Amino acid sequence: VHPPPIQRLVTELGKLPGIGARTAQRLAFHILRSDDADALGLADAIREVKSQIGLCEVCFNLADGPRCRMCQDERRDGALICVVEEPQDVIPIERTHEFRGRYHVLGGALSPIDGVDPDDLKIAELLVRVEEGEVREVVLATNPTTTGEATALHIGEALRQRAPEVAVTRLASGLPVGADLEYADEVTLGKALAGRRAL
Amino acid sequence: VHPPPIQRLVTELGKLPGIGARTAQRLAFHILRSDDADALGLADAIREVKSQIGLCEVCFNLADGPRCRMCQDERRDGALICVVEEPQDVIPIERTHEFRGRYHVLGGALSPIDGVDPDDLKIAELLVRVEEGEVREVVLATNPTTTGEATALHIGEALRQRAPEVAVTRLASGLPVGADLEYADEVTLGKALAGRRAL
After folding, report:
1. What's residue B43's pLDDT?
2. Strand A137-140 to strand A167-170: parallel, antiparallel, or no bridges (unpaired)?
3. Does ipTM top 0.90?
């Protein structure tokens, strides 16, 4: 029924997570109805994000230059590193205003079933960073899930061997097990940060 | 927290209907993670649809050329015209396989409160089309809502004056009042079409 360009847009929208066929069609007709500035604004924003956003050369967070905002901020404590799975996990931690150190983004969590090994994550880069820098403490803020815990244990063990003088901590319990860090509320996550325990 | 290009993408995605701030952020990170081909495929599909899709010069349905697919199809009955509010209303009617005539897309429904007058819809074009063509019957398939009914009554009256020999019908009851034609199931809508009544 649809001309091919509309069908193509419905197909592309349907590839987005949580967007089913009906929603994709509804969004496509919305885009068709909206004025050119709005529709092309979205197209341009997608192009821009793909061309301008890369990974920070220090911490592997998303960045619109060689280094992310947090790694450029000289007022942040470079001796304190918070390790997270994904770039979006940085956002709720920043919202707590409890953390003024730097970050290290692993790019996922260890999961042998899904074929994610230590080599697939930025773990070696973290070890080098801790060994070479004046690091006092590493906070392991991976998700409180099976894969997140396994990742924290693996990194904790590696840090104990390679940099035994560095304190390694884990977010305090308080986060519901099985939850996703990305959706935690500020108060709970703030408490979990304040009460972080030695691994 | 976000670099400006990411913030811009979150803002643009949040303009889509039914996409809140959290969902917009989730979609933005999905786009950041996905490979360039998929992300740019969506951007291109948006550009393509805005540059290639216009309104059919006959029936004002969406078309990727001067005339839509239904107006180009010589096997369809040009003496039978189904009048709908929006282009997306054509899809569920086609899915019933009960209708082999042509369409006329009004571009909305009469709504004095929202400032939608007869001049804002393709009503004059419908009257010319009925007067000039060999039209036998006009099926008024506007939504079974207050504005859709008002639109049907207005067009029915105009057709009785300008083309009294043409039969004017309305979709049969069977559709729940207050519903949206776009989301009707095929069976209900097929019955409504088959049992259409004189206005």
Report:
1. 95
2. parallel
3. no
